[in-house]
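User: Please predict the structure of the protein below. I'd like the answer in structure-token form so I can feed it into my own downstream comparison script.

Assistant: Understood. Taking the following sequence of 410 residues as input:
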Amino acid sequence: MSAVAEHFGSRFVKALAFEADGMPIEDYLCKPSLSMETRLQLPRDDGRLDFLPAWRIRFLDILGPSKGGVRFHEGVSEANLTTLAARILVKCAANGLPHGGAAGGVRVDPKTLSILEHKALAQAYVAAYGDVIGENKDILSPDLGTNARTMAWMSIQLNRQRRLFEPGGINGKPIALGGVQGRPGATAKGARIILERLMAFRNRGLKGATAAVQGFGAAGGSLALELAQNGVRIVAVSDSSGGWHAPKGLDIEKLLAAKTSGLALADQQVKEAVSIAPEAALEVPADLIIAAGTGGQVNAGNAGRLQCSFVVEIANAAVTDDAEAVLEKKGIEIVPDIVVNAGGITVSHFEWVQNRTGATMTAQEVHDKLQTRMLSTADRWLAEVADRQVSLTVAAQLLAIGRIKQALNL
């Protein structure tokens, strides 16, 4: 496997075949622009001192300052962060965002961190990588094991190190520290806009369609509610605890309210619904299967059992390469992650703009701007599908490749 295929995936390589004009774009993308590794010292509450491996990876900042998450997770490695940075570059390029791709993290189980330890680790990360972080260099965002509070600690630490106020270096902050209104639910709103455009393009309507959601968490739950409020019948939902299937439709507001109050999905009482295993939500009959759990949930083992028209990748890389081949043979289309889940990264970009200009935005202004950006992406993406007669996944990669090539040529 080539380095480009390893980092960017088979869809990107497949799309490159349509852009064979002699420009060696692969030479620019075979390695990250910057790859840094260190060990962070973490004082534990009991007096122990842990040494934790930490990384920051950047890919091709020719489009603008890179941006990407920081994850605190036991599975963090240089390899998976490099792939993540590469795919964020592609997502930014496809959606017309002026950013390169980046990713970083610390190999630690976040469940073992007390509040004070979490704060100390956030501060240590910024202390180690402060020279490469900044609104004009590399913008940090929350990811697995980090959240708005983590970003607050990181932002305060960066300001102290710089001896100036630079909120644009950290995204995903609380509103009081320069965060943007309208961020909650941005991924769901963006996905709904994309799906409305796509269904119209395929001469169908989103209203009246059926959907099943695997991964009824922050992103999947928000999207289930967004779709239900716009006339979609949600026939199944599941999370790691279990799930429910009701062909006549589920009361998503009630399920979400109970889960938010702390009642696991599998422990709820749902009338006229059948209890199902977490993975079974992918296999129920529905127009849309929403894969919103972790990556790779649609794979060679279950792809042949899917009964839908579209698989929607709310989770990054939700469909494996071998599963994609099976779905194509079955005539099931994949709505690619770099387009359909880009609402979150787009609103992160708005936060960066707000921090740089000082012009704050209301939640309604953010939602209006998000709709404009997502519709623009949808129209350019579907034009590629029609003009080139390619799949939805290849068309999305072509959007990114075209923009990267244009920048490199210039």
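That's the full token string. The chain has a mean pLDDT of 95.
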